[in-house]
Amino acid sequence: MQQRRETLPEYQMKNIPTVKLGLVAVSRDCFVISLSEKRRAAVAAACKNRGVEIHEISKTIENETDMLAAIREIQGAGCNALVVLLGNFGPETPETLVAKRFSGPVMYVAAAEESGDDLIGGRGDAYCGMLNCSYNLGLRKLRAVIPEYPVGSAEELADMIAGFIPVSRTLLGLSRLKVITFGPRPQDFFACNAPIKGVYDLGVEVQENSELDLLVAYKSHAGDPRINEIAADMAAELGAKGNSYPEILPRIAQFELTLLDWAEKNKGERDYVVFANKCWPAFPKEFGFEPCYVNSRLASRGIPVACEVDIYGAISEYIGACLTEDAVTLLDINNSVPRDLFESDIRSKYNYTLKDVFMGFHCGNTPLCKLSEGSIKFQLIQNRLLENGGKPDFTRGTLEGDIRPGDITFFRLHGNSDGGLQAYIAQGEVLPTPTRSFGSIGIFAIPEMGRFYRHVLIAKRYPHHGAVAFAHVGKALFTVFDYLGVPDIAYNRPKSVLYPMENPFA
């Protein structure tokens, strides 16, 4: 996880798992076992050369007894993710029972033949063996990662293994995750009020609390000796230019402490925590500030805090944090780009149409490290509603600025109205174009966004919130969603590929 400062206060939480990979080879007993062992050693060496740490399991699996011995060795080494290498055709039953016995993510890959001069004693038939492996995984209803083309040289397999690491990290994180919420999901934001059965289907736990619980906990932290330390850390992060209201930092620091302490005391048997909190309309008046800046700080540490009690939004953000080991954010897919702004600032510079661009916005929850320049401001909309548009007091606390340009992936894992899971993934970029607006906001460009907006986001009834990872991670995201058994994974289709209900005559 990228950090804002070289050192962080001692209350810093570690909220993302560390992957320890194991590599185990399998061998069908009618093949020479040394062939699989030689190919396993070559893959381990290629991983080392690539900078990928992997523990080579000495036991090669030929039968079920070998499988049990290998599992004991894997567990003894502390491995929490596993690569199974078909060094040759492989024994179908024991090689797939590995995935049943092992508690973490498993990936299957197969060794390619090395030389045309060694196709008698040195031919492994792993290309054929992968078919039987897949069939047997299906028979046992076992989940596993199989790369797009799972057969390769040692170097090619090392590349596949490197791509398996962020996927494993995400799956491990989700398996030990608890979502902590405060407040009921908003009445007029039914899109955030999705059925949470799918959350439990994922193996994620949920602890729902009242806003009063949070207020009581906040008040109990009054005078906490750690407040000044956190307020000083905030001031250092913001700098003189960004610290617009230094007098409210102690209030906000007290709230950050409240959330961190609540997470530590309530994660229970889980290792990782995210929040989904009610943040309006009662919150600012009762607490004395807007929570957005604190939300941004925790998101930069791998502890997303989703606005408006958006449980699936919080989980989506956490997925992005695990994949990238970087800060993430949650934004409204908010408003179109005015035509005059597009004509003056975008058309002649970028190969996008007006329908490819939109503004992603939220009140002020995007981490400072992902803003071109940010400062503490007040929530304009809430100020109009709660303070009659006057001098801001308790509506202060947003972190505002244009989002830094660069590659992004807009995505969401969501529970539909029938209680099932669905997801979307769209890669694009944030343009270096001033937004001329307020909040944490950026001009996003996604190829064929207009069609994606109509035939995925609207047609499949997605909410306004989308998670943003600040990199192109569509490939890994698709693998994660597929592993989780999400039946509907949508993406922004090119012009040549119509959506199911897209009018071909439009």
Please give a structural write-up.
This protein has 506 residues and is α/β, with parallel strands linked by helices. The protein folds into two domains: 21-174, Rossmann fold (3-Layer(aba) Sandwich); 176-491, no CATH class. 37% of the residues lie in helices and 20% in strands. It has helices at residues 33-50, 64-76, 92-101, 126-139, 154-175, 197-201, 211-220, 227-242, 249-266, 282-287, 292-299, 311-324, 339-345, 380-386, 449-458, 474-483, and strands at 21-26, 54-56, 81-86, 106-111, 151-152, 177-182, 205-209, 272-277, 305-307, 328-336, 357-362, 375-378, 396-402, 406-415, 421-430, 440-445, 465-469, 489-491. The strands form three sheets. A six-stranded antiparallel beta barrel has the order 10-11-16-15-14-17. It has a five-stranded parallel sheet with strand order 2-1-3-4-5, sandwiched between helices. It has a four-stranded parallel sheet with strand order 7-6-8-9. The model is unreliable at 1-11 (pLDDT under 50).
**Low-confidence sequence ranges:** 1-11
Q: Count of helical segments?
A: 16
**Radius of gyration, taken over Cα atoms and rounded to an integer in Å:** 25 Å
Q: Separation of termini?
A: 45 Å
**Mind describing the biggest β-sheet?**
6 strands, antiparallel, barrel
> How do the strands line up in the largest sheet?
10-11-16-15-14-17
Structural class: alpha/beta
Strand content: 15-25%
Integer average pLDDT = 94
Helix content: 25-40%
Per DSSP E runs of 2 or more residues, the count of β-strands stands at 18
Q: Can you tell me the overall shape?
A: globular
What is the number of domains?
2
